[in-house]
């Protein structure tokens, strides 16, 4: 397990400032979907019982339906676990020196990237939709000087506060390290 | 011609094996890549306990069935022997 006190490639005096996960609404979505999939066999069972009660006590179809229900519950349970693992392993760690982005896409696809605060050019927060506005969750985009895609914090709680915190930390970092130490200086093109 | 009832346990065994494998991958990912933070170890325990619970309840439900029995192929259609063809009120 990754320990927050001993991050990989930890710099001297580096401290964790923010530890972020996706908003709990994503967790609620997983539980709602799984809950529906778990109660679905009960609905189907009642319909089968009403439509054809002989099927449940049939010598072959009775055990076959029990086996199918058992297999279905195991599959739904493991799919729920996979979604929960995906949620749990999506983390964003903001330290006094850098941002570490860890994203899990399914079970066998994992992306870890990091950006130094001194490289940050622009931080944007985005809150889209009724639910996001009401529950104050949204995205934060961090743009660096390098030609790479924007760093994205997906569906985090209080994106505006996070944006302010990152902007403040980047400013402090740039001041303490000298101006834009990690940034490439643009080359002059001869006329 | 008759088929043994235990034949329907074969796909179940495959599903149990595959879900156990995916459970292992989930637990492995949490243990290997998760952040040492409150909640990670309890989550692993929830995975293991809930999977074991479903497994025990399922095996218990299937335990009462006599799996060595054979079923004639003609009896697989539940209405074939007990009911005649529909008359549609004629």
Report the biggest beta sheet of chain A as strand number plus sense, adding barrel if it closes. Answer: 4 strands, antiparallel
For the biggest sheet of chain B, the summary is: 2 strands, antiparallel
Strand content of chain B: 5-15%
Number of helices of chain A: 5
Largest interface: A-B, 35 and 41 residues
Order of strands in the sheet with most strands of chain A? 1-2-3-4
Count of individual beta strands of chain A:
7
The parts of chain B where pLDDT drops under 50 for at least 5 residues are: 81-90
Quaternary status: heterodimer
* Number of distinct beta strands of chain B: 2
Amount of helix of chain A:
40-55%
What is the CA-atom radius of gyration of chain A, in angstroms? 24 Å
End-to-end separation of chain B in angstroms reads 35 Å
Would you list the SSEs of chain A in sequence order as H and E?
A: EHHHEEEEHEEH
Helix content of chain B: 40-55%
Radius of gyration of chain B: 22 Å
**Element order of chain B: H for helix, E for strand:** EHHE
Low-confidence stretches of chain A: 183-191
What does this molecule look like?
- The complex is a heterodimer of chains A (191) and B (90).
- Chain A is an alpha+beta fold.
- Chain A contains five helices and seven strands; from the N terminus they run E-H-H-H-E-E-E-E-H-E-E-H.
- Chain A has helices at 24-51, 54-57, 61-89, 130-135, 159-177; strands at residues 16-21, 91-95, 98-104, 110-116, 120-126, 137-144, 151-157.
- A four-stranded antiparallel sheet of chain A has the order 1-2-3-4. In chain A, strands 5-6-7 form a three-stranded antiparallel sheet.
- In chain A, a hairpin with a 2-residue loop joins strand 2 (91-95) and strand 3 (98-104).
- The radius of gyration of chain A is 24 Å and the shape is elongated.
- Residues 183-191 of chain A have low confidence and may be disordered.
- In chain B, strands 1-2 form a two-stranded antiparallel sheet.
- In chain B, helix 1 (9-33) runs antiparallel to helix 2 (40-63).
- With 90 residues, chain B is mostly helical.
- Mean pLDDT of chain B is 84; it is low at 81-90.
- The longest helix of chain B is centred in the N-terminal third of the chain and has 25 residues, at 9-33.
- The A-B interface holds A 1-4, 19, 52, 54-55, 58-61, 63-64, 66-67, 70-71, 73-75, 77-78, 81-82, 84-85, 88-89, 91, 93, 102, 104, 107, 110 and B 5, 8-9, 11-12, 15-16, 19, 22-23, 25-26, 29-37, 39-40, 43, 47, 50-51, 54-55, 58, 61-62, 65, 67, 69, 71, 75-76, 78-79, 82.
């Amino acid at each position: 397990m990754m320990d927050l006190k001993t991050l990989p490639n930890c710099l001297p005096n580096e401290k964790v400032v923010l530890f972020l996960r996706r908003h709990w609404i994503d967790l609620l979505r997983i539980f709602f979907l799984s809950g529906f999939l778990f109660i679905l066999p009960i609905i189907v069972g009642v319909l089968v019982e009403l439509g054809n009660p002989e099927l449940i006590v049939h010598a072959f179809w009775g055990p076959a339906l029990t086996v199918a229900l058992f297999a279905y519950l195991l599959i739904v349970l493991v799919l729920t676990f996979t979604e929960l693992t995906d949620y749990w392993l999506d983390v964003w760690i903001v330290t006094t020196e850098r941002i570490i982005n860890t994203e899990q896409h399914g079970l066998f696809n994992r992306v870890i990237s990091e950006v130094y605060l001194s490289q940050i050019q622009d931080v944007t927060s985005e809150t889209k939709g009724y639910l996001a506005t009401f529950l104050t969750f949204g995205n934060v985009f961090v743009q660096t000087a390098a030609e790479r895609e924007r760093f994205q914090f997906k569906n985090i709680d209080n994106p505006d506060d996070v944006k302010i915190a990152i902007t403040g930390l980047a400013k402090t970092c740039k001041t303490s390290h000298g101006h834009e130490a990690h940034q490439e200086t643009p080359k002059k093109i001869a006329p | 011609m008759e088929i043994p009832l235990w034949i329907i346990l074969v796909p179940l065994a495959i599903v149990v094996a595959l879900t156990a494998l995916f459970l292992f991958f989930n637990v492995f990912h949490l243990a290997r890549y998760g952040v040492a933070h409150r909640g990670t170890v309890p989550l692993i325990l929830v995975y293991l306990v809930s999977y074991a619970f479903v497994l025990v309840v399922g095996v218990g439900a299937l335990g009462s069935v006599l799996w060595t029995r054979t079923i004639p192929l003609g009896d697989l259609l539940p209405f074939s022997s007990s009911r005649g063809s529909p008359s549609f009120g004629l």
